TrEMBL record:
Protein name: Diguanylate cyclase
Keywords for the protein's UniProt record, in alphabetical order: DNA-binding
Chain ranges of the OmpR/PhoB-type domain: 240-305
Lineage: Bacteria, Bacillati, Actinomycetota, Actinomycetes, Kitasatosporales
Gene3D superfamilies: 3.30.450.40
Amino acid sequence: MVNPWLALAADADPVESRRAVRRAHEEFLTGGAVGPQVRRVVADSWRRCARSRSATEAVAPIDLSDGELAEYRRAHPLAGAMPLVRELLGSVADEGAYLLAVCDEYGRMLWVEGHAGARSRAETMNLVAGGRWDERHAGTNGPGTALATDHAVQIFTTEHYNRVVQPWTCAAAPVHDPCSGRLLGAVDISGGDHLAGPYSLALVQATARAAEARLSAVPRAERDFLTALGRDEALLSVGGRRLRLGRRHSEIMVLLACHPEGLTGDQLALELYGERPVDPVTLRAELSRLRRLVGPLLVSRPYRLRAPLRTDVATATEELAAGALHAVSRTYRGPLLPSSEAPGVRRARYVLEDGVRRALLAARDPYLLRWWAQSSWGEDDLEVSEALLGVLAARAPGREAVASRTGRLREAYGVARGGG
């Protein structure tokens, strides 16, 4: 069975494959149809790129400047795995005349290293530290597509959506937080046609797994974690297990994590249901089902967690209090349990969201404002869009798009057009 994540079959002719996919790429751009010679993973990526209006003839944007980049990657979790990644891939990249690149979960390149000649060529398309290489900004490419699919993948020359990148072949694999399962970024190698062989995909996959193993080398108690930001069903990592909780169980775990002193049945019912009358048996049944999932972690009288449980909510709150806004931009992946109507969850959601939003408006950092304005939860935030427009220099890359979006939001909200 052919591995769909490999760019070329063992008996494929690279030259003919390049030509056939180039023709298919041109046909897709002109007519929207994808021919059978294009792998499904690539065809799906081209469609995502078309929907997001990714450029077909442009260099990737630079998202982090030197000062911002140094601060951001110093605090990034993948920094702890970089010595191992360099050990496994660094010398291979240098000797093989290709690049080693590591990006964050948003496709921002944190490290780009390797052969000097390859680095020089890569600079012409902004494949550099600080460049933005998710699919929306750089089209189909190894790290961007690995992030979009959450799977290791090869992208061969003309499979790249952006023609500027088509001289390259790359293989990339996602890296996850071993505690929470959260996507942290991707490791990639980029170079010539010789990378289309199966060994390069196996190499980046092995490196990504080794990086995760290195990150997991912390005491067990520190690895117990609840992830609830930006998702309706929380992910609980405890005792070496990873559990995806249902919506009501997610709400209960969030509330108990926020109240380590515990909650009585009446207090928990109020936090979950508000003033709505609910039979106490209903809550006891939910707690009984939850206890079967999490075992001795949940205790009663009052209802509480037997041991403190780290959460992404607490992490973001601590980062916010410390003024570490770039760290917040990694941790805060969206509103807390966004679909929850539980009063206690809604209150915690608002407190954190409002705190983050106010802090980035006060900081007036272009990167942070852009992060919020381009997010699914902040794309309709007129105040943030106006603030971003106000801090961008007159000829800053992307300013025209920000001005256009701000104008549309002003019109939608019935606000008179201002300056900028």
